[in-house]
Amino acid sequence: MAADFCRDVEHLGDTYLVCTFDPAMQELRLYHSNYAGKPYGAFRPMLDDVAVDRTRVLFAMNAGMYHADLAPVGLYVENGIERQKAVTGGGYGNFHLLPNGIFYMDRGKAGVMETKAYLAAGLKPWYATQSGPMLVIDGKIHPAFLPKSDSLNIRNGVGVDRDGKVHAVVSKGPVRFHDFATLFRDIMACDNALFLDGTISSLYIPEAGREDRLFPMGPIFAVVETRPG
């Protein structure tokens, strides 16, 4: 067990670390850059920065794809400010394996929504990050995923279940997209779930002594608590 909120889940012969949070009870945030606008690029600079505000990070995970300069590829909203616009067109790579989607958090609630549906809804959340592809869209597996695909990779993603709880998941070994998606739909009861990234999948879980540092990262999803002054 990595922490009280994490557990191992077996699915179709593979093992996943699933960490579950209730946005109505816990504070969920996104981080990307320091006050000078420099991307953190890793957990440690972010941890040192937020500690100044007496904020303790209980959990963190990479949360979206990024360019070579660590800028988010798609929509990114932090503290209610849209720092990067949504991308709706096609292109190369997993991000553009449409439909892609958006993970958002606001006022004790969280959600995952397909990008065009999100934009049509006119939402203005406090935090949002775009990635792709969607894993599950309104209860249906992404149409491009093949049950017998030989494309295997470490993968991480996020889904919100029917009770509003957020499930942040990282595979412990290489898995195919289809299996990853069915984990969210069939085991975690998430009608909508979003792929975040592959090989760079990284976690910070202090209770487990884990702070992955192998790869740079762009947006960071974090669960925090603020100590009283």
Which terms would index this structure?
mainly beta, 7-stranded antiparallel beta sheet, 39% strand, single chain, 5-stranded antiparallel beta sheet, 229 residues, 17 strands, globular
Plain-language structure description:
Helix content is 12%, strand content 39%. The chain has helices at 43-51, 115-121, 177-187; strands spanning 6-11, 14-21, 27-31, 55-62, 76-78, 81-84, 101-106, 109-114, 127-131, 134-137, 140-141, 156-161, 166-171, 190-197, 203-205, 210-211, 220-226. The strands form three sheets. A seven-stranded antiparallel beta sheet has the order 1-2-13-12-14-10-11, covered by helices on one side. Strands 3-17-4-15-16 form a five-stranded antiparallel beta sheet, with helices on one face. The radius of gyration is 16 Å and the shape is globular.
The biggest sheet, with number of strands, parallel, antiparallel or mixed sense and barrel status, is: 7 strands, antiparallel
Strand tally: 17
Instruction: Identify the strand order in the major beta sheet.
Output: 1-2-13-12-14-10-11
Portion of residues in helices? Answer: 10-25%
> What general form does the structure show?
globular
Alpha-carbon distance between the two ends: 32 Å
Seen as an oligomer or otherwise, the chain set is: single chain
Rounded mean pLDDT is 95
Question: SS-based structural class?
Answer: mainly beta
Which residue ranges are poorly predicted, with pLDDT under 50 across at least 5 consecutive positions?
none
Instruction: Please provide the ordered H/E string of secondary-structure elements.
Output: EEEHEEEEEHEEEEEHEEEE
Radius of gyration, whole Å:
16 Å
Number of helices: 3
Beta-strand content? 35-45%
